[in-house]
Amino acid sequence: MVVAVSERAPREPKYYLVKRHLLDIIGSLPPGSLVPTERILTLELGTSRTTVRRALSELVGEGRLVRRQGSGTYVAEPKISWPLRMTSFTEQAAEAGYTVTTQLLDARRQRADEEAAARLDVKVGASVFVIERLRLVNGAAMAVELSQLSAARFPGLVAKLRREPSLYRVLAESYDSAPVEADETIETAAASPRKAELLDTDTGAPMLVLSRHSFDASGAPIEWVRSWYRGDRYTFVARLTAR
Amino acid sequence: MVVAVSERAPREPKYYLVKRHLLDIIGSLPPGSLVPTERILTLELGTSRTTVRRALSELVGEGRLVRRQGSGTYVAEPKISWPLRMTSFTEQAAEAGYTVTTQLLDARRQRADEEAAARLDVKVGASVFVIERLRLVNGAAMAVELSQLSAARFPGLVAKLRREPSLYRVLAESYDSAPVEADETIETAAASPRKAELLDTDTGAPMLVLSRHSFDASGAPIEWVRSWYRGDRYTFVARLTAR
DNA sequence: ACGCGCAAATGGACTAGACCACTTCGCGTC
DNA sequence: GACGCGAAGTGGTCTAGTCCATTTGCGCGT
User: Fold this and answer.
1) What confidence tens digit (pLDDT) does each residue in B18-38 have?
2) Which of A13, A76, A229, B171 could cross-link A208 (Cys pair, CB 3.0–4.6 Å)?
3) pTM for the complete prediction?
């Protein structure tokens, strides 16, 4: 008697209704505005706080909202564009009109694991430098960067880096080595507690991970870098041309 | 008498402990293996199911696990690399050895909103074609693509597209128009219920959003496309050269 | 007038449980 | 032997609540 409905609607979870409600609010407010508290939204929308928080978390992850514990939830500033280019990080930023500083978190020598060995064209267990840096734009943490280079190929690199912060300049001046080609990959990830703290965000927040594998003119690998950017704050931009 | 500890540890949430436990398990198993059920993990780790699920959700979002309702949670296959290049989608895939099909979801004419007008260099309210397509690789949904083009510039485009699926071929053959330059931006987002269903994933799953704004030889805008890719399954790859 | 301390309010983490949708598989029936 | 039904088990969503960490601001004391 009853006919089954063949086309089932793509049922909408309740938290998504909350999300759309919040998007309405966000759309009508300038960045920095306070949005209703979680407990008020819970009452207004007749739902549980867990459900409200799920909607808020997605919007925070998309860079639409900012949460400040003890204070409130606010409409976020627009995202910042970041160019994908061959030039050094410092130069890139200067061109875009930003003031960039770098904080050396760690520089150590360790044995290459399987992946590092393959990337740097050395044997597993060979000595590699691991350099961890925090990139800041106009004083705000932007990315955590983990570089690996062959220790045999760049002897004394770490000591030189402590005096001259630009890695590319050190490579050019002290080792007469410059990357001319690179493979870059981009993917998503969730922030570890450590990276979250360094980048002043929450554990589990969505991030953009940029990996760069660069080579010199002879095709020999120079460095392998992975950079973690806050996905709620940055957008990568590339300019492509035919052929 | 008591000295305050100045360096507070980056305290680890409990769910992150669960996540690391799961990473141990994942590391020792081949793709496709079944991992313990949520309720078993709850008992084993002495925690609530909510906490277990938060850890699982992050790992699913990072492409390390796959959840199948009613069945179980499994170790995921490695991610697929996808090149960022100027050539058409169909050609790209063929080069990489994939079989790609395209499903036309919707093709309509609508009035340009503010952003579309700016991108396509037309007036707000001018007629634009909006083409929504689903891209499939070897039969599996890969991306949802939303293209917008000026209707005045490409009259009859939608009708032609129904016969010839490659947009770039239609543009070249019928309008003698070819994109030679493009700006691409990459950012993260959460899947809407509709996109989640089309891409066979969960609402709120992390995605990579690729926007392409392409121009012809005279610098006039041709199309503005946004593509949503599953972040747990795809990685973008670009090859950069100096200068 | 100033500053300190405390209370209130916020977001953050977590619990224990309910109910639903879907898959799987064994058992009974044909 | 093939089929179909149903129970059991899985992940999916949501509730209602606890306790914690941090911020804010008010009121009291000086």
Assistant:
1) 999 999 999 999 999 999 999
2) A229
3) 0.88
